[in-house]
Amino acid sequence: MTTDKSSKPRLSDVLKAAKAKHRSSKTAKGKKAAKASASSSSTVDVTPAPRQRLKANELKWKTVNTSTLPGMDGGGGMMMLEELDDVAIEWEDDGEGRRTARFLAKDTKGKRKAEEIEESDEEMAEDDEAAEAEDDEDLPTFAGLDASDMDDEDDEDVVEPEPTFDDGLLPEWTGVSVHSLIKRAMVALDFVRPTEIQQRAVPIGLDGRDVVGVAETGSGKTLAYSLPILSHVLRQPVPRAGVRRPLSALVLCPTRELAIQVNDALSKVVAAALAKDEDDEDEEGDKKKPPRISVGTVVGGLSAHKQKRILDRGCDILVATPGRLWDLLKTDDILAASIRTVRFLVIDEADRMIETGHFAELETIVGLTQRNYVQPTDDDEDPVFAASATTLTETSAREDMQTFVFSATLSKDLQQNLKKRKRKPSKGKRKASALEDLVEKLDFRDAAPEVIDLSPEGGLVATLRESMIECVQADKDLYLYYFLLRYPGRSLVFTGSIDGIRRLIPLFEELKMPVYPLHSQLQQKQRLKNLDRFKSNPNAVLIATDVAARGLDIPHVDHVIHFNLPRTADAYVHRSGRTARAQNPGFALQIVSPEDRAVQRALLKSLDRDAAPGDLEIEGGFLPKLKERIALARQIEKTQHEVKKESHDRSWLEEAAEAMDLDIDPSMFSDEEHDPDAPFTRKGSKKQTKKSANVPKLKHQLAQLLAEPLLARGISARYPTSGSRVIVDEVVRSAAHPTMLGAGTAKAFEVADNAKPKALHKPKSRVQAPRETAQEKKDRKRKEKGKDKRRKFAEDEDEDDE
Ligand SMILES: Nc1ncnc2c1ncn2[C@@H]1O[C@H](COP(=O)(O)OP(=O)(O)OP(=O)(O)O)[C@@H](O)[C@H]1O
User: Fold this and answer.
1) Is 472-619 a domain of CATH 3.40.50.300?
2) Which of 146, 483, 593, 706 lies at a CB distance of 3.0 to 4.6 Å from 473, suitable for a disulfide?
3) What is the pTM of this model?
4) For ligand 1, which residues put their CB under 6 angstroms from it?
């Protein structure tokens, strides 16, 4: 389909000029541009002469990318959209209100200025994305890519020779044909020994095979799939400057945090691989070259505009969450085509991806990589879709595409099916799970993808220790507080709901604990900030939903606490896997109330275990004081909440009344003169003031309680050298517990070693009624006969009455 170019409005230039005007009030750059645009009152041109007139149909119109994928209305209903560069516009007034546009050639100076404006327009567009509340600094890095890197246009495609590498530096990687620059990075990052999954999966990946890798949490799966990809990219010709790179790999992750983490892990290896030695020559010359490898990330919650720009420049490896990638695909056929021709497709934490509610997006994205791209039949007859279909069907998916699926938990059934390439359950068998559905949609090029299953017994890592605290539901806060004080360290607390987090955070803040929330309803910027705070404080406590359960690689998480048990064994494995990573010791605690027992039993059963973790020893002497603190903190929280809620409700009522021009009935407010049970408290009324005034008093009391030392039984704070336990030596040696005097300083995982696993509580079997004797049976029958007769008689009487 063609467009009539002579009648085309010069949209981009008009917009540029209009935006420049708007911007003039905002930015310094804008002032310059506005000056240019204000130089003639009858023109919106951004540059002055030369003014050589041009014919519209001789101009270099450029097609604007909009998606033509079925079901995506990326062009907003337009069939085609084109734009112009390097052309100015002049409007000629005919004096009767009609205006004619003229195209004028620009000089290079004008081009430079226009580019300046374009750049500034982009900045403005980013400002406009304030809804996403993101700063550029918060964006994931685009490994080494700089605008100046893209300026040279005269380089040729060349395959750089692989530098030699002394295998003696990395004996355990000998024989693995990863690129020598990657080996260099492994030395620099101190990854001198491959983990088991890396040992098994990397050579197969380098061999061009498909891999399904299942290995325990924290076992280095990210590098297991990344090293073959990075080696492949490094062995490709160095991309020419100014040319959009073909996308080599697409890595799909279930959560934003995980995608950013994978991006960081890859960027770290790339940076170490390409770091210049001191004796490397031509540093100046190298600076101007495009980056050797570029990694891009697209995730929800961060500036879509900037992410789009990264994609427009092109990158080698794209790490994405399905939701945001889908959004970008809607407006970009080139991106869709590059995904179609991708060399590597990675599904990280495959099973979780199914649960995140992005299954449809994931399915469509995965569908693009299939050899036979299938157009939905409904759209076949639509001329627009018929035309658009060519974009994708003309691009062939690669026959040598490799698919990597990695997770710490992948059902044995599914693995078996993959091995046999029998991915559909045969007829009459149970319904396929969503994951099986997805795997079926993965168009493995390999006749038999290599399934590497290194998952440990019971799904849990060997260096993990577990314990349990059994208590009533109402005491869970108390025991959590006890544990966090008793075992200082970086602790990750999992709750079952966002509401649970919203309740716990203010409570523990009152108790002056360094707690941070993490859940899906927080802004992405806040999520990343809280993660950073958690990473940087060795005693921080992150209270999270399962959004933090998968893949997050936070160094040195000492404890994972299941404040609420998860519903599935996989979730338990992934949550617990945030500690005890990379062979480090770790500890997981279950806080179990009687209401949780059934869930615990089911969980342990799915994990193939017949015993629950042993009880964590509790030093009861500390509990009364902690209980007092918790009670006071709750009271403060409750009062503050009430005051806040009342003032919120009152302002809502007042605003609504004002909007409707109504007077509020005084009986709606409770104070001394009116109904004390009225729904609202009058602002400034004694009742309200009393409530608010109470808060500082309660806070003062709590501060005093928090300042009091916590003493184990038998310890005297006043006379540390006497009492039934003497702790003065510990204090002098600085070996005493930091907050609980008299408590030991052993770590939780050391203490857990001594606890004996507990046999599972069996549900109480129903008391069986003793079997009736023959005589009893006879008597029962006789009684029932008599009852029947009496009922019959009564019914007959009722009928007569009617
Ligand atoms: N060969 C290695 N030697 C030492 N450390 C390594 C090696 N490979 C990876 N690591 C480190 O191990 C940690 C865990 O790696 P990674 O996050 O890839 O684990 P994972 O198996 O993907 O875990 P999960 O299943 O929880 O996502 C990372 O900090 C990583 O830097």
Assistant:
1) yes
2) 593
3) 0.67
4) 191, 193-195, 198, 215, 217-223, 408, 551, 553, 577, 581-582
